[in-house]
Write a structure and sequence with these properties.
The chain contains nine helices and five strands, in the order βαβαβαβαβααααα. It has 213 residues and is of the alpha/beta class. The protein has a five-stranded parallel beta sheet with strand order 2-1-3-4-5, sandwiched between helices. α3 links the parallel β3 and β4. α5 packs across α9 and α6 packs across α8.
């Protein structure tokens, strides 16, 4: 089964889950159904689409996306609701939902949404891979090497870094050389690019670089 044929369906009622699954099957997709957001999180799927009812009491689509970003691999999310409210739609889309549909799902609308989501997912998956690669490189740094990188990203010179960290300029050069080697960076612009890539994906754990003195 290809990843774009699997749809993870989350809805509050068994009737809605059954109806959405029926439409998915009609369109040639396999549907896995869940009664709650937590059921999806606990199952930790790593492929397919998520078609989730926007249940405000559970944190809504925004809450689901936030939890997904920290607990599991990124998957494209399409929100659904009976009589969608504009503010809920805007909130979900700003949080990263790729689309938002009315229940019951119109087959043609769902087909179009899944096609668009698949195209967007391909782009985001590539970006996420770059983010994960950059984070793995950053994780290899010692605390001091990371401090040097943070100050480098902020635009600090070796002399300024030495003053801020209260170490000698020569020690900064040593830490910087080790940091560049671990990152596989040929020059400072490469190191900055790797930091920015590591800071761009979902579930960002990196602190914002400090402002230059």
């Amino acid at each position: 089964m290809s990843s774009d044929s699997l749809v993870h369906v989350i809805a509050a009622t068994s009737a809605d889950r059954a109806e959405i699954a029926r439409v998915c099957y009609t369109l040639g997709h396999h549907a896995e159904i869940y009664a709650s957001y937590q059921e999806l999180i606990d199952s930790r799927p790593d492929r397919g689409f998520v078609l989730a009812e926007d249940v405000e009491a559970l944190g809504g689509i925004r809450g689901l996306l936030s939890t997904m970003s920290t607990e599991m691999s990124w998957l494209p999310v399409i929100g659904v609701a009976h009589s969608p409210q504009p503010n809920r739609v805007v909130m979900a889309m700003k949080a990263g939902a790729l689309d938002y549909l009315s229940l019951p799902c119109d087959p043609s609308c769902l087909r179009e949404a899944l096609v668009d989501a698949g195209q967007e997912a391909e782009v985001r998956t590539q970006a996420q891979r770059q983010t994960e690669k950059a984070r793995a490189l950053i994780a290899r740094l010692t605390n001091r090497e990371r401090e040097v990188l943070e100050l480098l990203v902020a635009g600090s010179s070796n002399k300024t870094i030495a003053r801020d960290l209260q170490i000698s300029p020569r020690t900064v050069e040593i830490h910087r050389a080790h940091m560049m080697s671990k990152l596989g960076a040929g020059h400072s612009a490469d190191a900055v690019r790797i930091w920015l890539q590591a800071s761009m994906g979902p579930g960002t754990a990196l602190a914002e670089p400090p402002l230059a003195a």
